[in-house]
């Protein structure tokens, strides 16, 4: 799949199936999700740096921007499909074959092998959480997902205050 | 996933990823594909009955109409995902859990256990073939897929004249 | 109109005008409606069979799947257009000309000439009712339609408990 | 149907069914068609005035802008539906009930009772012709429609040079 | 930009960016807005005429129908872009070059040089106000815009009762 | 505009107006363009590194991913609007206010102050060129744009072989 136009258009026209399954009319595309992760990860890095961390902003943005590229080949199947495969390994295999120059950046995220990867993994879940909150506020039944994600995000050490900020900003009336 | 509105909307908003990967702007949804299979299977049954067969029209239409329902849960991932799973078994499992009253009809199609199922399986591939031909005629590179499907369809005994008819009608300039 | 690709795409791109006229952003297409009728009719048949009826599941699904095909030719005009024509006869004429092998199945539904046709006619109205309820829950003024359909559905003998089930499941806050 | 937001959104989300029936992916909406008629009618009036005519530009634009409003109520059904009704009278009835202040302008167009109405009626057909030419150039089978419209447009006295200009500009390779 | 098909399709596919920036899924296009202004302006003229005014209905409709044509060339940028340019002069320049036969009508609206232009300018703001109210009722944060527009509309002499009517009809729960 | 969901959705729903103005049905969104620039810039960096350069891959990806963020506020107006403003300064101002932590990365690209920024600026034009070629191959009149971009891309020192590769891959039949 070496046609980059097709890669981009596949990612920008593939809806994330979890929103469809909860009845949302206007399901976020994979590429819109990736951009949201990029913006969130960049903001988080900036906040942490303001607190004294030394996170490489470019690396955070880069990893976030490419973290879902394998879905151009794999599509975005339902949870039950992912659970039956070693999805991570499959994604990595696609990266090695189609985007070998990006495979290392992908690994940082997927296996959370360094701080950059951990921030992007956190931002990935957070992006889904705040989108779930917005859908809920508009009348769609996404609270199950919001709660499950919130719990996972609470498990990240040292990012609780970041989580609090975004929940306060985007999840009014959905999460406590 | 007991919300039938969400089942329908997921199927009607999930693009078939193979068209996206070949650059098509307006990728057929899973539900549009199912309807095309239904119409083709009905026409084929009518033709065969006119030639003296005794095919149950209602059964052909019914099986075709529901054959892809599992994709409401599974989504429509790329070929590489399907190839790594026992996709058929996964679909059957979804039918048993979500649509148990339709599971037998699904099995006819999936395992081609009777003539009705065989016709729907043929119509399923044929529907993809003629859509591939149309995309090709509009300028998209789908000929690889058209050729592969044509070969598979040739392997169906007793349906060669049916195949010829549809290729002549829809694949001008794409297949010989 | 012998091009089946055009038949399918017309049905899947024609919005049901009643939703547009009530301001809904994301009006259900004719083909999404047909799929919903198919799923509902299948569920209803399964329930009735579990209660001891002997309804042919394939026939119910088949009739539901094709019941609106004539709209590929006729489009989906407003209520006032339908009311001024013998719409049923016009539909039947289209079936006879374009889909003669399906014309008998259509008649079962349209004139409710047997139990199968009656169930599909019930499911057709029910599909519109539960979609109206969903639109209302999202903020659109479809309650007039919901109430009118509920009244019509109450008139079907022996299906009141079916109606109750679906209203309880999909119409919370809209119907009593 | 006094909700003007719904009137507008119905017109802008109702595809003209003739394009769907010829397989076009991106069928023109009724409101896009109305705008095209408005722009064409304005250009034609300007050309005729430059040749010495005295056509009221505002009237031409106004009639064109509203000429299809009745479709907010009636929808945009297929040709066979229109042919079985006194469609013109039905449209007029809708105007009288819903848009009484516009009913006279509508009549100018519909019955070509004056020069303004005649120009808009010409522009209405011309808009459909040049759209048909564009669809044909992109690969859709609309030439039957283009030819039929061209013939009708040739019957307008004194506008042959206008027709020639637009055919030369938009119909290269479609009409001679 | 002499291709009228491209002019129309640009206007009908360009979303008004203010709605996107407030999160609306289904942002009104420029051409849908123009049609709403046309319908409102026509209704307002009819009401004023019923009160004894002598407003030329065709002129009001014509000016409204074309008032945003320059956006086919300019697009629909954000407020900050418009504020840094003499946007009005830029629009006028486009009219003179692309649609010289409509430039005078545009000027009536843009500079409110006569009653017709003033009514269209009022209807333009009113159309945005009632759309903002509808978005708010569906859950989007457009109240800032609604309030700002209401204030501007209050400044139009002799139209307060018109404003009251539309606010009562469309802005329940949004404006007092 | 601190709502990141609205930022993302604005970018993913804003069509690039130049494609609309050339009649393309399916105009690329700003966010799809940004993703294409990111993928191209990454590939180019990988090629140059394989030739012995030492380009920071993460920086190239990061700058590309964010280079058009200001359009969430500014929209994507036509060329004539941009030409009348100091567009670059306006973009920079938005970055400083809305995304201060990304402003330096933006400057690298906008003013081509280092190799990373130069590669992204090249990839930005190249992304538009190959999209123009694809539109042309599908029948839209974008060759003027393709030629103008090709000329600008030729002016980049040391990247001629990169340009040749992409033109050979994507512009068959459009550029020599």
Automatic annotation (TrEMBL), chains A, B, C, D, E, F:
<dbReference type="InterPro" id="IPR039356">
    <property type="entry name" value="YfbR/HDDC2"/>
</dbReference>
<feature type="domain" description="HD/PDEase">
    <location>
        <begin position="26"/>
        <end position="138"/>
    </location>
</feature>
<protein>
    <recommendedName>
        <fullName>5'-deoxynucleotidase</fullName>
        <ecNumber>3.1.3.89</ecNumber>
    </recommendedName>
</protein>
<dbReference type="InterPro" id="IPR003607">
    <property type="entry name" value="HD/PDEase_dom"/>
</dbReference>
<keyword id="KW-0378">Hydrolase</keyword>
<comment type="subunit">
    <text>Homodimer.</text>
</comment>
<dbReference type="InterPro" id="IPR006674">
    <property type="entry name" value="HD_domain"/>
</dbReference>
<dbReference type="GO" id="GO:0046872">
    <property type="term" value="F:metal ion binding"/>
</dbReference>
<dbReference type="GO" id="GO:0002953">
    <property type="term" value="F:5'-deoxynucleotidase activity"/>
</dbReference>
<keyword id="KW-0479">Metal-binding</keyword>
<dbReference type="Pfam" id="PF13023">
    <property type="entry name" value="HD_3"/>
</dbReference>
């Amino acid at each position: 799949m070496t046609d980059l136009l097709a890669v981009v258009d596949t990612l920008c026209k593939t809806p994330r199936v979890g929103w469809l399954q909860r009845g949302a009319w206007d399901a976020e595309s994979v590429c819109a999700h990736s951009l949201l992760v990029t913006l969130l990860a960049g903001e988080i890095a900036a906040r942490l740096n303001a607190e004294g961390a030394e996170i490489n902003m470019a690396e955070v943005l880069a990893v976030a921007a490419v973290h879902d590229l394998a879905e151009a080949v794999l599509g975005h199947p339902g949870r039950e499909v992912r659970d039956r495969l070693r999805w991570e390994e499959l994604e990595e295999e696609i990266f090695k074959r189609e985007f070998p120059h990006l495979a290392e950046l992908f690994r940082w995220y997927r296996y959370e092998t360094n701080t950059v990867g951990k921030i992007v993994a956190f931002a990935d879940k957070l992006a889904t959480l705040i989108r779930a909150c917005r859908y809920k506020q508009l009348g769609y039944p996404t609270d199950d997902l919001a709660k499950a994600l919130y719990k996972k995000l609470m498990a990240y050490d040292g990012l609780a205050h970041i989580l609090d900020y975004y929940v306060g900003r985007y999840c009014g009336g959905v999460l406590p």
